[in-house]
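Customer escalation, tier 2.

The customer says the design service returned an amino acid string that "doesn't look like it belongs to this structure." They asked us to rerun it and document both sides in this ticket. The original structure tokens are below, unchanged.
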């Protein structure tokens, strides 16, 4: 285990924010509002088809998701639900902003070996 475990764990999260009760079939405008919030947060994030990857100190990640909820409510959504998956690790240091990238790179490196055969 890493010797220095801070009180604020480094979190790698994937979340799917779901505006409800908007009366519209598309939620793109609401998701764009959340993306604006995430951009202002300064945290590393990546939008994908069914959610957003987000990483940074645990408290900042959770604050950013909270702020997305507040912004989507302010835009008019009466209800917001969010599914969140969060991973942390203390067995090694993770350079800020590299949590998701290193996971994907590891799998791609393994697949690249298949192509060498």
């Amino acid at each position: 285990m890493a010797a220095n475990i801070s009180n604020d764990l480094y979190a790698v999260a994937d979340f799917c924010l779901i505006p409800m009760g908007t009366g519209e079939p598309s939620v793109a405008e609401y998701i764009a509002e959340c993306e604006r919030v995430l951009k202002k947060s300064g945290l590393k994030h990546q939008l994908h088809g069914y959610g957003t990857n987000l990483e940074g100190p645990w408290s900042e990640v959770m604050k950013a998701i909270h702020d997305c909820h507040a912004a989507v409510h302010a835009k008019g959504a009466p209800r917001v639900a969010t599914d969140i998956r969060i991973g942390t690790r203390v067995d090694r240091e993770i350079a800020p902003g590299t949590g998701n990238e290193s996971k994907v790179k590891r799998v791609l490196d393994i697949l690249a070996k298949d192509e060498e055969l």
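Tier 2 assessment: The sequence is consistent with the input. The chain has a mean pLDDT of 92. The longest strand covers residues 10-20. Sent an explanation to the customer and offered a walkthrough call.
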